[in-house]
Request: fold
Amino acid sequence: SFRGHNELDEPMITQPVMYDVINKRQSVTDRYAGRLENQGVLASADIQKCSEDHKQWLRQQKAAADTYQPSMDDVRPWWNGLRQGGDGLSVWDTGCPEDLLRYVSFKSVELPKDFTVHSVINRHINGRRERIANGNIDWATAETMAFGSLLFQGFNVRLSGQDVGRGTFSHRHVMLVDQTSDQLHIPLNTLSEKQSGFLEVANSPLSEEAVLGFEYGMSVATARTLFIWEAQFGDFFNGAQLMLDAFVSCGESKWQLMSGLVMLLPTGMDGAGAEHSSCRLERFLQLCDSNEDGGDGDWLNWHVAYPTTPSQYFHLLRQQMVRDFRKPLIVAAPKTLLRLKDAVSSLSEMSSGHHFQPVLGDASVSAEKVKRVIFCSGKHYYALADKRKALGHHNTAIVRIELLAPFPVTAISREIAKYENGTEFVWSQEESRNMGAWSFVSPRFSRQLSIQLSYCGRAASASPAVGVAKIHQKQAEDVLQQPFRFTLR
Reply:
């Protein structure tokens, strides 16, 4: 239609004068054909034949569409060597030689000659060297090890988001600034004279829809770069909801375009108020094409993880590049864990032969004595562990679900089997009942594992978090008390 309107609409209803003028004009096609005929370029019969031939082609294509079966193996030429995710959860050796990890860590805080850094950076440099020496690897160091080891393998890494070079919580510092000249320096880009992979740091404005859309577009164009977008706070992704709904969550299903984009969403109910607490984990789980009755595998539209240790995060990042398929990865990233003394890993946990664990069991209790099993995800684990210790509950195990989607039913089943005397099974979370992972995990435990979980967490709420400190503190204490009460909801 040349009316410039939806072809099913009648524009005369609302714009009669303008469309009276339009209706009296020839279409562009007729005007062009008339000019060709007047100039002797084409005869009237030729024009008619062109029109009929094109209409016939359109009819043929319409008929072919009725029987067309799209191929799910249409991997673009620049994705050679990759496949689409298959059934089951594959395991990849994402560990690295310890000497390489030490080398990357030391190089990550090496400065050029006459390069002046802020005093905060000096503390960062000394702290990293100490951590390498004592073997207590924190979150930022594990991330740097993941980046650097991938660069050594020839992959590129691109990190975007607001203040990502420094890190929202001043923990990362992969981009340094000379205090006298404003000169920038990225230490990981000087690992070796022969390195072929490089780190690109794109400190972007708070324009989430534009930035995330750009990063997604880049990620479908190449499989050799780890693209990471970090929200300043987890719930800031809501400014890019359109990109998530229409592209990232379903791009492979719609157009067979694989993406290895990673979204880091800092989360945690730490008393920061409604807009700086929850990364709205429930939304990402709701957008998964996971089956409540089972059968999840690598094929899931995107993967959702809530890791609790630096080594787990290290393996997640490396897995994105090492495996032979690409999937978007949603990471509920930490805030308080960045500096929590207990949230550290040993270098050996990231060494060769190790990999990401979808479920972390509880080695601190005797399995035969366990009566109650608490399942949880993310930073909440540390608060639960401290509360258990304070209460002296030696018959309670705490199992961490590190990968929520695809749902790791086999790994969970193995953990449950350890507790033959277990009679009470609990899901504990910081978030409100209508948020977090509860609505996702509950039916899967019931249908796939025949386990009826008791819920422990905040009551349903319209807002992700309260804005009054005293109320927050009371809720937080109640959330920690609930899983250890003898009568569960």
Q: What stands out?
A: The longest strand covers residues 424-432. DSSP finds 15 helices and 14 strands in the chain.
